[in-house]
């Protein structure tokens, strides 16, 4: 993969934004490998993403950012600059179920995910061997026989030592305390095992079974303080029928969970997502 | 299509049901073209559907039914006997939107649906010409400038004159009064323009847009007194993105609504559905 | 719908294209409602589409085009300028099957397709009444009891009187002669009832049934002189099983054909497609 | 999981088969947990599968089989009796790519697949550590620097030592010699990385990219001597666009390959498949 610079921009829409930004890039020799734009009619907000071949630029990153800050001010932009060579540090959090964790680990192992997985935090011991085979540190946090607050404080401290850019809840079944939600706002990704907003909270497959739905789904979203209410990155579903027990739904849903989480995470790692209010713009 | 007899059975599960029923059919020369079974582990209920070539039977329908009633008693069966030659009478109900109505009319016109469409009831006049082109009576019920109850009474009376076996709400946007729900219990089919239980009630596409979901869907269900809570016949979804306005979602959703309604209706017309509690067993 | 100007561009990729074009548009006050870019790594070709609010432009269309021609020359661009107010004239061609024709007619009737359907050409009489109900002229061309060449000459002459911008083969089952393929190159759209390149030519559902596939599909493509080999606009599939007869596959496939054709046609009508070699770039 | 007996039957269709078989089972106290039937109109062949709770049977397996053989003779049945407690021995064959292998290993590890994986045969060394972590023997067969026939003889001998019931080609990129095809006829399962019959043979993603298809797929099939022509167990597809390079197609296709192979293998392990000619009846 060639090294690229990614520029994510959000600002009030007006005539001339694309012209100004693309002129800025062209003047510095920037060869764009991808360019995406979105104008939101309802809010009047404009979004763009440019991916630029790093070696084509006549200025270094620092200069580019300093220069761009001036332009950005003129358009009242919120913007994010990132470099594909600066790999994001990811921490995975898991509970007892292995499928999402195993899937992300394999994708990472086979080079499909551009990131460094710096650790796994889990409230069970059963996945240690799988994680350590990948040469990734495994941090067990005991949630039994003590106060949740105490365990959560240990989670927070453990995360802090790894300083992750992204935290992925790979079927981590504990409620995230508000302080962690705030600390990792916009960079903590959860997979919920239902097609949200259906079946918020615990036991969504049981609820789906009881309601007699004909599709079960999964939703990847950013974690906010409101349980299962954060901005959605991706969703998908799979067909079920009266022949499927709740256990069948759980099994069929696993594949959907894995894929939806992997797609959401991939988009985040490639800086393809802008959050606007409680919604996402995803440039793919 | 060959004439067939369809037997739908539901009873407490025990050893020997299939043997008894299939022996009963075989003794009367019955050639089965389809046979489906389902044992529900949770409730201990057993379901079966047999489709039998009519010409293969050595007894007439009346005799078959009389004989079968004896067997059915022994197993505490609820059962339904139907004859593919006795086409169900269907009334469609519509409002202003044409897509579901046009789709059903065309499927019927091209021979895809085994039924007689005996009338359309609508609270707008705009679809009259389309319906009458199909040589189907169009009953306009005025819901403006008078009490809902009065209009609903006219709906009920109009339906009564047609004595439908099935009523299809093809995006009929009025609430169905409880009396009608009861009268057509298990044979009034609605299409709701969301993936239930998400977005119950009015304006589901607006709600879906506001929530930022990545799929929009539709649900075909039997109408009960609880709005959008009846047993689900079918559901499906289509992918949307940040590029899609609410109007795009409405447009994309139309195709899903049409197909889901058509599949649900087809299954009902072919006597493939057993309702168990608030869920459906659909033999396809 | 607001009136918009659409600019479709293809040229060798180099630094500064987006800057030049967006600067050109911004200087004329152009408010972009959509902007899409694609750089093809394999061929080094660059593609872009801009949709501009017509009322925002400070120059008229003629001036815009004249000015743009100068810029385009400098970049060796192939380009297409279109105006959403200039509705494309569409002719539909059909045979005996009604489903794709009925679907397009209904979408057009309900305002979903931006075009004028100026006529239907068919080699059977059975669809006349449906077409004429939509107040669209129906041209029956007799293919029986005479030479194909003679019938095809009548087709060509009939098309010529209507001067269509787009010709849609809505399950028109005749081979298109080479002269017509050339005349309507890049604007004659066919729906083939298989997932190409599987099952080219006649009877694809029979072939699919015989091969025992678990999905059947449909392909919308531009017509070229090589049968079923033209650039693909869209494809989709639906699940089938051993329970489905060839007739079931035909029925299930109809829905896929309708949707795939409608999506392809819609993209074409909105000037979203650039053909590159035997492939399409579709900006959606 | 309760222990069950599975009976798979295929015979010429006639009146009374279901009655005879279900009576046979009921007389021995058999509680059926699943029952499936299929009558093929084209060939006049009848298929059925019964799954019976082992503990409900009043006779042991040997007696059941001996008794059933008599009944089967009378109907000219081909039949297969299997016991869920007799886990099938599976050998996986792989090449360099890890995704299908890793997916099957994880499903097996987490208890989703009822089988014993007794070994992996591969023509590269790179997957050894992953396999051995699962405590499964890894057999490397060198295909370089010697005759294919010699290497294939070693494959055959290695397989023979493990006496597998099922061989799974999990993206094993070598051609299987005719002798092995025959030896494992109906129990050697391959995953082909295209939607067959499109793109038979090598490099299907390159072919798909070159053709400009809008969906890429995968096909799970039994291996026969005709390359990629065997009976299809399952297929699926995923949407691609002009934005996707060949490498993107490879990546997107991996998920489809994994799922299609896993579904096909699962159906085979649960004795849900009857092969008829070059097609499969799959009772799910």
From TrEMBL, chains A, B, C, D:
Keywords: Hydrolase, One-carbon metabolism, Purine biosynthesis. Residues 88-263 form the Formyl transferase N-terminal domain. It is an enzyme of class 3 (hydrolase). GO terms for molecular function: formyltetrahydrofolate deformylase activity. Its EC number is 3.5.1.10. It comes from the Bacteria. Transmembrane segments: none annotated. Belongs to the PurU family. HAMAP family: PurU. Catalyzes the hydrolysis of 10-formyltetrahydrofolate (formyl-FH4) to formate and tetrahydrofolate (FH4). This is Formyltetrahydrofolate deformylase. It comes from Sinobacterium norvegicum. The lineage of its organism: Bacteria, Pseudomonadati, Pseudomonadota, Gammaproteobacteria, Cellvibrionales.
């Amino acid at each position: 993969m060639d090294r690229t610079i990614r520029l994510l921009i959000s600002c009030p829409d007006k005539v001339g934004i694309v012209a100004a930004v693309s002129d800025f890039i062209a003047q510095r020799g920037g060869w764009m490998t991808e360019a995406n734009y979105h104008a939101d009619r309802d809010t009047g907000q404009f979004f763009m993403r440019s991916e630029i071949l790093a070696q084509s630029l006549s200025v270094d990153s620092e200069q580019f950012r300093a220069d761009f800050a001036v332009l950005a001010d003129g358009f009242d932009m919120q913007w994010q600059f990132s470099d594909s060579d600066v790999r994001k540090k990811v921490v995975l959090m898991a509970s007892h179920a292995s499928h999402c964790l195993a899937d992300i680990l394999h994708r990472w192992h086979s080079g499909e995910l551009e990131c460094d997985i710096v650790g796994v935090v889990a409230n069970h011991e059963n996945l240690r061997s799988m994680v350590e085979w990948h040469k990734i540190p495994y941090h067990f946090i005991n949630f039994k026989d003590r106060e949740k607050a105490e365990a959560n404080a240990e989670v927070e401290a453990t995360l802090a030592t790894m300083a992750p850019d992204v935290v992925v809840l790979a079927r981590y079944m504990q409620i995230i305390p508000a302080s962690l939600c705030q600390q990792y706002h916009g960079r903590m990704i959860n997979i919920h095992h239902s097609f949200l907003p259906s079946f918020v909270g615990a036991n969504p497959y049981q609820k789906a079974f009881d309601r007699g739905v004909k599709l079960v789904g999964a939703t990847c979203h950013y974690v906010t303080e409101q349980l299962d209410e954060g901005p959605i990155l991706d969703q998908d579903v799979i067909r079920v029928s009266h022949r499927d027990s709740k256990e069948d739904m759980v099994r069929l849903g696993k594949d959907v969970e894995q894929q939806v989480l992997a797609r959401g995470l991939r988009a985040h790692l490639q800086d393809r997502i802008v959050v606007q209010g409680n919604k996402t713009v995803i440039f793919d």
